[in-house]
Amino acid sequence: MSNILQLVLVLLFDSYKPFFIAMRCLYILGAWMLLKKSGLPAFWSLVPWVREYQLGRSAGREPEGRSFCVTSMLITVLQLANICFRWNRDSRTLSAFVPLILVFLFSVMLMHFVFNIRVFAGFVQIYGVSRAWLILCIFDELRFLPMLIWGLSRKYQPAWKVENLKEEMERLAARGSAGILDEGLTVNLKDRHVKEFFHKKYLLKDIHMAIPQGHMVLLLGGSGAGKTTFLNAVNGYEKADAKVSLNGKDMYSDYKKMQYEVGFVPQQELVRGKDTVEKTLLDTARLRLSKDIPKEARRKRVEEVMEIFGLTPLKDSLVEKLSGGQKKRLSISMEILSNPSLFILDEPDSGLDGVMARELFLELRRIADTGKIVIVITHTPDRVIDLFDDVIVLAKDSSRTGRLAFYGSVADAREFFGRQTMEQIVKSINQKEEGGDGLADEYVLKYAEVQNG
Fold first, then answer.
1. How many structural domains are present in the chain?
2. Is 177 helix (H, G, I), strand (E, B) or coil?
3. Do 437 and 312 have their domain in common?
4. What are phi and psi of 186, to 5 degrees?
5. Model's pTM, two decimal places?
6. Are residues 43 and 86 in the same domain?
């Protein structure tokens, strides 16, 4: 068999030996059947490497599918390199690279093995079969057996289909937009997506809500549900296919002006440790307040904010000498200088003990009571839940898209989910592999039905 033919066979089947080619053909047939059952285009099973990604999607393990695809590609490339080396076995230069290639190949094959198990563990869950099936999936020579059995037998049906689920979500997505509030925040987000691995990857989809002024809102959701992406879309930092209005004004069309209407406090403090508290606030005032405001008026505003947040006694202290709670109050003070209408905070209580966190949230409650909208992400919501008016719950559906599972009062959230604590609500929507109950799709659809009447 010529080297050229070997290269072609490795490219198509990851091998040039007849036995392994036969096993690979059966694997491709199994992939065809599984993709078809999952509602995905079966022809992807014929495309080297891409089929591994599509298998990950149909198994509900898209992130693992991406890695499965990449490691499959690397293994093929290394196998091609090995053939080229044997083709030029007299080259000393190539000989020097052989040990390195072998070590790299072993490492990639180990990673490929791990992602293979994770993808097929998804199939075990979706088809509701025993985990003992994974024993067959460990071996390349036997992996086609469960694929063919699940794919060909009518006895085995997936718990959900990728495309059917998408259609159901689209059908039940909240029809119409939330009415734009003259005084408040209105979010009508169609989607936020990125281009990734041969298709659009939707990060968020179909999120509609209207938040009145004076409300303090808790933003809940498991890891990867899109909380930070949602906040970035709301404040215009990462624009989505959406219409976001604050007090009747479009956030996107006049972003440069409207950005001063939003105060955003990230998880990490963005302050210089060698500056004093007062200098930090004065510098911020020069940036955030209008240049038409006199110097003395800016200083007076800084003094007012320091007094509100108890920073006056610390005005000459270096930022690096402040405690964690004091740094959080300084970060909030920097954002409130411009008197924004919307205040967004990403884990402001991170690193704080219960007492300090409570004091911080009491300050946020007082800010909301002045007519501001305050939206907060926190991983310890139950210790301060009594201070919130509303709850937004984002959940990853089976296609790993962030969707709105609930928006409403705290009391209504408890009734809707049948849980008494916010941590229990998050657990109910988290995927089973993340230690949750795996009920995200159920609640997303339930909330959509409620909204649609």
1. 2
2. coil
3. yes
4. -120, 125
5. 0.70
6. yes
Residue 22 belongs to domain spanning? 3-159
Residues 275 and 326 in one domain: yes
- Say if residues 143 and 137 touch (Cβ distance below 8 Å): yes
Three-state secondary structure call for residue 449: helix
CATH code, domain with 205: 3.40.50.300
User: β-strands 390-396, 216-220: how paired?
Assistant: parallel
Q: Are residues 377 and 298 in the same domain?
A: yes
- Name the range with the highest mean pLDDT among 69-83, 175-189, 247-261, 398-412: 398-412
Reference 449, options 41, 441, 383; nearest CA is 441
Q: How far apart are CA 157 and CA 99, in angstroms?
A: 46
pLDDT tens profile 276-285: 888 888 888 8
Residues 119 and 186 in one domain: no
Q: Give the tokens for residue 359.
A: 């004091």
Q: Model confidence over 315-352: pLDDT tens digits?
A: 888 888 888 778 878 888 888 888 889 999 888 887 77
Q: Which residues are paired to 196 by β-bridges?
A: 199
Contact in structure between 35 and 44 (CB atoms under 8 Å) = yes
